[in-house]
Every structure is written in C-alpha cells, then in structure tokens.
Amino acid sequence: MTKYSTDRAAGVLLAQACGDAIGVPYEFAGRLDADDVPQMSGGGLGPYEPGEWSDDTQMAICIARVAATGADLRSAAALDQIAEAFVEWAAHGASDIGVQTRAVLGAGVRGPGRPAPRLAEAAREYAARNARSAGNGALMRTSIVGLAAVDDRDGTAAAARAIAELTHADPLAGDSCVLWSEAVRTAVLDKRLDLAGGLDLVPVERRDQWSAWIDEATGAGPARFNPNGHTVTALQAAWAAITSTPVPELDPAAGSFPCLHFQHALPAAVRAGDDTDTVAAIAGGLLGAYWGASAVPARWRRAVHGWPGMRGRDLVALAALTAARGAADAQGWPTVEAMTNPMAHDFTASHPYDDGVFMGTVLSSAHDADAVVSLCRMGTAEPLLADIAPRDQVTVWLLDSEDPGANPNLDFVLADTADAVAELRAEGRRVLLHCVAAHQRTPSAAVAYARRLGIDAAEAQAAVRSAIPQARAHGVVWDAARGVSPR
Fold first, then answer.
1. Residues near 261 by Cβ (< 8 Å), separated by ≥ 6?
2. Which fold has domain 6-323?
3. For residue 404, what pLDDT band results from cuts at 50, 70 and 90?
4. Overall fold of domain 348-481
5. With bands split at pLDDT 50, 70 and 90, how would you rate the model's confidence at 415?
6. Which residue from 99, 136, 101 is spatially nearest to 235, judged by alpha carbons?
7. Distance (Å, rounded) from C-alpha 351 to C-alpha 359?
8. What percentage of residues in the chain have a pLDDT greater than 70?
C-alpha cells in the first residue's frame, strides 16, 4: 500500500455514496437555487431513507465486491461475476434502475453461454435499436474501477471499457468510463485532478471531440450541462462542479480548510439539476480519490447507508481492499475481526469539561457510553461496538504519526471530530472518545472538543494532560488540536 495514499483510495466509494445520497431527494425535481444547500433527506425515486444511496452506488458495489477479492477486472471470470452480480441486483436488490440498464439486464439474463458475453450482446442489440444509447448508467458506477489496478493505466482503461460494455455498448459510454476511471487512478496515485490526462486512452478519432468537451466543462457552471442523462453531459456536469468550486484557504481559526472543497463541490453537482444523484455520485468518486476518506465529514459518514445493508465503513473496506488487490495490511485491516496492539490497556477518564464524554482506549470498560468515536482503525466485530446503533459509531481517519503527509487533512479532521462529539451530545448520547492506548489521538481529540466548547487552548491541554497521565502531549496532532475554533 506504499505506492498510493490509502486515505485517498478509501475515499472513492464513500465519497461517491455521499454524493449519491445528497442527490437522491432532488432527482428530476427541478433545479435548486444557488443558495440552496442540498441535504441527505431521502425521498427521491426510491423512495429512499435519509442518507440512503441509490442505484449508482449499488451497481458500484456489485463491481467492488468482485474487485476487492483482487480479481483482474479484465478477465472473463471477473466480468462474469460482475455480470451475475448486476443481474442478481436487478432481480432482488435494485431500488431504482435506469431504463436502458433494466432492458439490457432483462434481456441478457436469458440464453446459453457465459453471463458477461450475454449481457454485452444484449447491450449491443439495445444500441442497434436505439439511437440514444449512450446513457450515464455505466459512468455512474465506474469510479471504483480506477482503484483496481492503481499502477496500470492501460489495464485500468481496458477494465473500465469492458465493464461499461456489459450494459452500454455505445463507444461514448465506454470512453467516458475510461476517462473517469483514469482520473480516479491518477488522483489516488498522485493527488492530481486531471481529466484530460486520459485522452490518449480513447480512440484517436474521438480524442479531439473529448478534449473539446472537457475544455467546455472546465470551470463552467454545472447547470450548463442540463439535461445530463447522456454520458457526455453527465461527465461534463460532474467535472464542472469540481473545477468551478473554489478550494478554500487553510485557516483553522476561521473554520476554513482546503478539503472543504469536497463538501462544497457535491452540492454544486446537485444544483446542476436533472439526474442529480448520478452527477453527484460521479463527482463524489473523483473528489474522494483526491481529498480522501478523511475529508468526508462525520455527519455524512453517520448518515450514509444502503443496499446491501452496508454503511460507510463497509465502503471504506471495499475500496481499500480493491486498491490493495484483495490483501489486508500487516495488522489484518480491514478484514480482521479485532485489531490487536500490545500497547492497548483498559483506561477511562471523564472529559474535564463534559462528564458525558469519556476519554479512553480500545479496551475501555469503565463507562456507560451509548455512542463511540473511534480515532483508530477498528476490526469488523470489535467488542467496543456491540449494542451500539451503527449511526452512533463514528470512525475517524486519523494516524498517530509525526509525518505531515500522514494526515493531509489534519486540521479539518480534528475540528470535525469535535463537531461529531458535540452533535452526539446534543442528541443526548454519552460518548466514548478513544484510540488504541490514549497516548496521542484521544488526548488530542479531547483538547479539540474542549476548544469547541470555548476553552482556552493552554487550559484545555493542561486539563486533558492531567486527566490522561499517559498522554504524550507533544507532536503534530497534539499541536494541531489547539487550533480548533470555538463554536
């Protein structure tokens, strides 16, 4: 996992799902005003629960569950598995499904031979009968493909086109998936937003046209590309939302962080109107690849969920495994049931400024918390999470590291964690705030929460250090916690 940012890889599916869920309530419901702030309020064509993702992310999960095994997505076996997953989803899991995708999956399920060729043939037959067959239904699910071969741009392009052609035979649909998957791969590998960088991967006879379409969208208002059910205008609307949204300056005292670009660009995609969940899902995949899972605010991570009974942490695991070609890391994350660490011990202390917040470790037991904010990676079945509602379990992407590059969104993460604790407390929850051993992350987040409550930085650090004797009380994470602004 050293060739790329695991944070950015982990952000791809999670950020797509957030865009999807934000766009769901507004699909085909008319354009929003410029000052409207879209919310994960549910409804839409499903109708969906608040925070529930739609078919855009559902189909991406069908791909991700194959990719997360380490399969080569260009192989016949992998394409068959994806085709079978699409058909099974359409029959038993789809809450909403596009007209073209429904028609192809319905026709391709019948007949002899392997599943993938059957679907691809049904897609070609559909395209032959319908002049307008370059819909956005392949593009909406393609971001995850950009993770499957992070070090292989040609392999990524081939996989993107092959998976697109399972339901969308029009060459433009395949081109758009190639371009977007390559942009995701580039963002994860190099933290660079470059949609035109993949032009050499599309056939030469269409490169100039795609270059013109990308130029037209770069920095433009997303609403210019409405309607956006076509794969070209969907790509343009998503790219316009990303490139026309300013990146904020870093000013923690003012609550300004560069990665807020992610939170601002997704609503911009929704305000394009028309197929709002799809455009925002497409944009979210690339934004997550650029800004990382650590840029996704806790209030969205708490809410987002969907078929097949997954939540945000499940999407993080699928994306991380896809990028690592099915391999867990040296500690077994993200597939191990329980993380182990020799430094872990049972310790709990009350927050010095809020006795409804407990500061602890992964083994904390002396508390009556009914919500947990985990500042370290967790296993799939940690005892700490038992009997706590999924919405009340927040896992924060925060590394105990002195390397400035390890936590690229550090100031935002600390401020957002403080906001998450405050939100849970406002809902009447008693919160356990913990990391592995309460050496660095727990005390730092506790200081951030104290700052959120309006406590002076020096006073907050002294009080937390007194309450947690083993606190390291120095380093980049501890120092950054001072900068969280009171609310």
1. 245, 246, 247, 248, 287, 291
2. ADP-ribosylglycohydrolase fold (1.10.4080)
3. confident
4. Protein-Tyrosine Phosphatase; Chain A (3.90.190)
5. very high
6. 136
7. 6
8. 99
